[in-house]
Hints:
Blueprint: E1 4-6, H1 7-17, E2 21-22, H2 23-34, E3 39-41, H3 50-59, E4 63-64, E5 74-77
Parallel strand pairs: 1-3
Antiparallel strand pairs: 2-5, 4-5
Amino acid sequence: MPESIHRHEVQRTMIAADRASAREDLLAEIAAHFGDDARFHSRSASDLTAVEFVDFLLAWRTFHDDAGRGPSTKMRFAPTSDDE
């Protein structure tokens, strides 16, 4: 079983990329960087696939659009916080 990757590691990687991504592009970027079989976790969720992980982050409003207004079709990660 692959090692689980914490939410903050993914956020740091995507923030460093400094671009907004459509959901499918974000999933492709996550797979390219972390692998197709990667699993993800946070304090409140574990053993998530990339699709489950992105859906989880959307539910937590972890993404924002280029204007910082919240989820959109082009998403950026909000700065990392320790609230979850």
